[in-house]
Amino acid sequence: MATTPETTEQGSTFTGNRQKVAAHLTQNEPLLFEKSSPGKRGYRLPPLDVPEADAAKLLGDAARTEAPELPELSEIEIIRHFTRLSTWNYAIDLGMYPLGSCTMKYNPRVNEFVSRLEGIAEAHPYQPESLSQGALQVLHTLEKALIEITGMDTITLQPAAGAHGEFTGILLTRAYHESKGNPRRKVLIPDSAHGTNPATAAVCGYQVENLRSNQHGMVDIDQLAKQVDDQTAALMLTNPSTIGVFEAEIHKIADVLHSKGALLYMDGANMNALCGKTRPGDFGVDVMHLNLHKTFSTPHGGGGPGSGPVACKKILEPFLPTPVVRENADGTLRLDYDRPHSVGRVRMFYGNFGMFVRALAYILANGPDGLRQTTEDAVLNANYIRKKLEGYYELPYKTPSMHEVVFSDKKQQARGIKTGDIAKRLIDYGFHPYTVSFPLIVPGALMIEPTESESKEELDLFIDAMQQIAREVEENPLLVLQAPHATRVKRMDETAAARKPILRWKGAPSREPLTVDTAAKEW
Ligand SMILES: *Cc1c(COP(=O)(O)O)cnc(C)c1O
Q: Which residue has the CA at smallest separation from atom 14 of ligand 1?
């Protein structure tokens, strides 16, 4: 058909509208998010081929009288909705995730493959022991590997996260002191500790006593000696600390505590800086937790799953949660529930089994040399970043860095720019932000942990972006202050997001279905 001027006209308007709508859709998230319209169905049940039951008779008051308010969508709309949302997200599988303290390392796919093997994924926790030997072997082998790595005597895999491991470890500490006649009153915590440490001590009924760090960001041993007394249950020490510093005199710290009958708890969430190089059990630690979902490369974030095994010395063994895996005389394995001094269960069944499989796969795939290499690379990467950014950002502690490096925004503050602004600008350059304003011991902290996963090329891109932002702060601070510029939503009300989160779909106020014209007009 010959093209008349009118249709050409219409055609170009249409194209123009399409572009506007596309732009509109990327800019107006709520409109794009809300897809429901009455009567649409993604799936219909086949017709009933049995007599209909009387719901009220079966369920009484619990029977529903009105249909639930659910979004109404076709199947492809649902698929597109979730696929679209997934592409708006940032993930370690897309790029570097330098969130300090979180150890966002890559999770090798072989771990996922192994954890999905049918015999493993479908194992039932109530299978008889005779049919669970493989699963028990996974627990036992992982326990032995972690005991070897930490240099401790024994371990429980039950706790479901790092903070839960702390809770378990301090329960063990409490049970130990109680068995000696006095649970003691207080737990010492350095100001460079992870925030979960004081929370744990308080939840376990202890008074938290703050211990000031010295100018190197380390425990001040003289100060410690003054504060430890016969009412001190333990010192909870994050090592390396939250500023990425190794406590060089940790054995002396242990001696001071032990001389007063107190225990040394090590927060071992940062074991990725020590693994294969040194062992907490050898430098005086009595009890510690590990974060399998950090050091041993299993996926984390978004609320789980986690795993925070607690390793300890023999003196705490009687108090470990039940059950524990033990070897029979014939080499088979059993779960031992006969533990009169145990603090009890801290989690149902045996812990997050899928995580154990992934962690074990990671440990076995790397082997001792591989784990050591991993540690060295993690520390090397952090120090490479430190060296390259030193001139651009203030380094509050000059003590050598381990697996992460903490800068402050002191230089940028002079131009009115804070760590949070720099982090927002980093998003424009395609990176997940570093950890903002933590640890608290460094005002305006930028806490960067690259992990061993990143290549030099990726590190260089990140460094480039950070240097560029430092220059922007000098030349065009507004650009940084108003960042991010390249995201679908700009700065959000983070307080409202935390205090009044909207966590479920509630339906939108009804509106006319979106058409090319109405959308363009709205835009
Ligand atoms: C992450 C972390 C924790 C808490 O671990 P969760 O699994 O998030 O509970 C505790 N201490 C340190 C040092 C950490 O980095």
A: 269
